[in-house]
Amino acid sequence: MKGEKADDSAEYRTFPNFWLRDNCQCGSCVNPDTRQRNFDTFQLPKDVRPVKFSETEKALEIEWSDSHKSSHPWLWLRSLFKKGYIEEFGKDHPTRYWGQDVGGKSIEEMTPTVDYEYALNDKEGMARLTRNIWMRGFCFVENSPHTPEATESLLKKIGPIQNTHYGGFYDFIPDLAMADTAYTNLALPAHTDTTYFTEPAGLQAFHCLSHEAPPDADPNEPLGGESLLVDGLNCARILKNKYPAAYDVLRTVKLPWHASGNEGIAIAPRCAFPVIEEHGSTPFRIRWNNDDRGVVNIFEAEQWYDAAQKWVEIVRHESNEFWFKLNPGRILIFDNWRIMHGRSAFKGTRRICGAYIPHDDFVSRYRITNFEHEKIIGHNLHSSPADTPARNKAVYDRITAGP
After folding, report:
1. Architecture of domain 113-368
2. CA–CA distance, 152 with 6 (Å, rounded to integer)
3. Which of 12, 32, 177, 385 has its CA 20 to 30 A from that of 294?
4. CATH number of the 2-90+374-400 domain
5. Strands 339-343 and 2-4, bridge-based pairing
6. 134-192 pLDDT per residue, tens
7. DSSP helix/strand/coil, 23
């Protein structure tokens, strides 16, 4: 089936018959409430074909050999190709990397923040919060009440709390209630959480409700406990540019990860995963926690350790580190797929609350609050042409060639 754009600049495309019939968007084929397909694709005749068609100003109208009639808007057909896709559905906000080799202001000078009440009670406030996390990887929420209840209320506005073997919403002090170094007062190097899940936790939140000095503390000495953030995706970019062979090792060598310290718990991913996961050729998720890493395959160990050493040097470079103090009333929320976090050792007792939120739920909230509903639906239903290059050049040429 051939179609062309009905204006002064013709664009010729050849669409497979079965594909057009399967993607009819009429009310009998697609439930208008759920946007789900209403028919069994595989009950259609394999040789279904148009018996009659016409071109209107807005759509390609087709009458099919199975007696069905469909209408395919030109804008929708054009959206299947790169330029038209962006025009019809828009695109997500760009990632803003920070740290080493990134020009402009430092992250300290442009720290993303939003007010608690604004984020909790105003759609535009939630849009700003999620947009900051999407673009910079994290955001501070200022002026929160100093309670776990207030913290949890805000997080549930973003998405459901993710339950793990640690529970759901957490509220803890360094008492080793769980067998994890997070439940101590020891320093923690930059890492991502839940590397041992097949799909690691998406967002993570921390709110320091209090930090009490030990009874014998010198009031003139700092208590420690500064927090650390590192842009893992930017570190991956640096590694790729400076040491492409090392980058290739960390994206291809798959490692075991585990959580085995608590009685009755022996968690590991369904399969091994590399440190750097890519979408196409772009890094999109970092899985890094040396404490939770299993044994490197002996046949790949030499090259992996060499690559990991280069990675660690980049991660620990001072220009990639953002240090700050978590205080009551200031909630930190960050993307655990991108941002590595850590802390310095501390004295006394800190009470921290927070939670994980699944990544898909975060992305949903980001798009719902930042874009028009119909554009979101279109975005969700269609693969971006940039993300799905043709597997077969002959097929691509057949579809895109002119008359």
Report:
1. 4-Layer Sandwich (3.60)
2. 53
3. 177
4. 3.30.2020.30
5. unpaired
6. 999 999 999 999 999 999 999 999 999 999 988 999 998 876 555 566 677 889 999 99
7. coil
